[in-house]
Design brief:
about 10% strand
Length: about 250
């Protein structure tokens, strides 16, 4: 049985990817990572990764938000791990991140965000990063730099890029057909059977869980496709194109 690593930029569909993989036959085992977070964090240690891989020696999955580094890619390859990189429209990631910071009091930017007057200003900060501000100690990477750090994963032979917009299905504004095609790609990547019965069952249960999740209006606002359209002004669209345009195209979004 395969070991799967669900890797994402935060707010790109981590739980959706894990839910999908957990539904394949024999893949119910998910490992909680050691350290301060239950996922493999960007500043994880070699010991953390080794401990997770030891837990999953006979197969299973774990998740993380880990930018590409040669040493981790090599460690995953040597362990026979297959990465599933869930990718999402950077504009939707941006808006979902803003909502998360607003709601999550423990977030390092929560208190700072309370003093930013409006949505447009918050999104602009997340686009450009904190280098554009004269605020001592505030570190916010630009959106483009964040995506660039993850970009090499797109080219790794043991890494499959899966689109959130295809995987979310009807509850998030997608389609059942696209969802089934994406699930079949994951099954092939992880060497699972791709029978119609298995693909349909995984799709049905993913949609069922997504529907339950989206009954909460706050979750729906974060999880549906195209949420950025409710928040972007023309000025923000221009700023996004100027700062993130080429990177967004590289990831398959225009």
């Amino acid at each position: 049985m395969a070991i799967a690593f669900v890797n994402t930029i935060s707010k790109s569909g981590t739980h959706l990817g894990m839910r999908c993989i957990s539904l394949f036959p024999g893949m119910s085992l998910g490992a909680i990572c050691p350290g301060p977070y239950p996922y493999l964090s960007p500043d994880h240690s070699r010991h953390h990764l080794a401990e997770v891989l030891n837990k999953l020696a006979k197969g299973g999955y774990f998740c993380g938000h880990v930018a590409y580094r040669k040493e981790i890619a090599r460690a995953l390859d040597l362990a026979g791990v297959r990465t599933v990189l869930v990718v999402r429209d950077p504009r939707d990631v941006l808006v979902s991140t803003m909502m998360w910071i607003d709601d999550f009091k423990e977030h390092s930017l929560h208190d700072f965000f309370k003093n930013i007057p409006g949505t447009t200003e918050k999104l602009a900060l997340l686009i450009t990063g904190s280098k554009s501000l004269d605020v001592s100690g505030l570190i916010v990477p630009s959106l483009a730099s964040l995506y660039r750090r993850f970009s090499p994963w797109l080219l790794q032979t043991n890494s499959l890029a899966v689109r959130y917009e295809s995987l979310i299905g009807e509850p998030g504004g997608g389609s059942r057909a696209s969802q089934c095609r994406e699930i079949a790609k994951i099954a092939q990547h992880l060497s699972f059977p791709r029978t119609k019965k298995i693909i349909d069952e995984v799709s049905f249960r993913v949609q069922e869980s997504s529907s339950a999740y989206n009954r909460d209006p706050d979750n729906y606002n974060r999880g549906r496709i195209g949420i950025w359209r409710d928040h972007f002004t023309s000025e923000l669209e221009n700023l996004f194109v100027q700062c993130v345009g080429p990177t967004s195209v590289e990831w398959g979004y225009v």
